[in-house]
Amino acid sequence: MSDTASFAGLDPITLGDLLRVASQPDFDRWQDQIKRTGGCANPIHLTGWSLTKDKTTGQTLHHYTTEHEPGGRLRIACGNRRASRCPACAWTYAGDTYHLIRAGLVGDTDKDIPTTVRDHPRVFATLTAPSFGPVHNRPTHGRCRCGTPHTEDAPVIGTALDPAIYDYAGAVLFNNHAGDLWQRFTTRLRRELAARAGLTRRELADAVRLSYGKVAEFQKRGAIHFHAVIRLDGPDGPEDRPPCWATAELLTHAIRAAAAHPYTTINVSAVDDQPARVFRWGAQLDIRPIKAFDDGTDITEQAVASYVAKYATKAAETTGTLDRRIGELTELDRHHVPDHARRLIKACKLLDPLYPDRRLWAWAHMLGFRGHFSTKSRRYSTTLGTLRQLRADYRATQERHTLGLDDTDPDTVLVLADWQYAGHGHTPGESALAATIAQDLQLNRETAREALHDQLALEGAAT
């Protein structure tokens, strides 16, 4: 068991349960299950069995049942992407997102992305929300408008200077329509690229393919914005070089024009006491070329992939709201939701009957945002499903080796199984132990990564 000093601050009930779990005769097997989940904070419990047989001879090669597992259950990872719900599974999701984004920047032959994609024009663009009223901030020079020099972690950062005039309704409606606004932006971007190349839309499709991978991030004021890797390929995708006129400079100009074009707006009609609104991207538009190596002026492939992966596991809970759907407004009091987030949530509640097709109350915990947090175009890179399948295949190979089935033809193997859902989660003591296991696993991974980095650095110096 991990160092008991890490459990010194536990309350008596949790500590007593932890000692109960650790004293069980099957504790080692329970610990092994949790290690296999990566230290999952909310594992899924299954009961059942599997039978592996040779189809040609009928011989039983392996039989497994959960009857002999701790509590008669097999525990598997929950797979939740939110770091607030399960740090261990979110770490895996962030890693997958990192590899997905990075493969679209540097290539990955194992995933059919050629390394020549590195030579394609690509930029890192950030599209922000417009202003809904002045908020407390930390300007680069000077003080906040309120006259106070706030620290970076001050709770007041991002909250309204004057809640009475802040447009909370406009903020949640913008979040709610942000996905539609992105779709309009990408459509207009293709038109802007065609116009600058002197081509029609059809001719552009025969010459260039627009590819992107993006992630959504909540600003502290509760407004959504998007970070996107945007790349130009030849018509067949990443393996196809774009024409010489398709440059990063042309792409940058096209992005600026598309973001500001009247087509890239969303019109929301007036309803009852709500005025008509026109939503467009905010004035802050950041576009930077992506370079292979750090030259002090632009961002690198590594930095971009890490940045996108970081925000792939976060959502609106970073603003103080809840990380799950809200049943009643009374939950806000029980969970001590701060005033700014509370006002945004209440705006969703009040606006929901006025815009029934937008389902604002269902997405109130996301401050109205109803889109996917991490998306990509079809040919940008590999997929999360492919990465998960590679991991599953690797584990299946390990399992076959453990069972001594390396020499058995997979096509002659028949697997029968019956699984039933039996619950989820941990007892308080199990939860404390699982958190420590997750920390140990992460420390081991970081140590191995640093060792590999040092090794590669030494090899590079030697050459």
Automatic annotation (TrEMBL):
InterPro entries xrefs: RepSA (IPR046828), RepSA_streptomyces (IPR048241)
UniProt protein name: Replication initiation protein
Source species of the chain: Streptomyces kanamyceticus
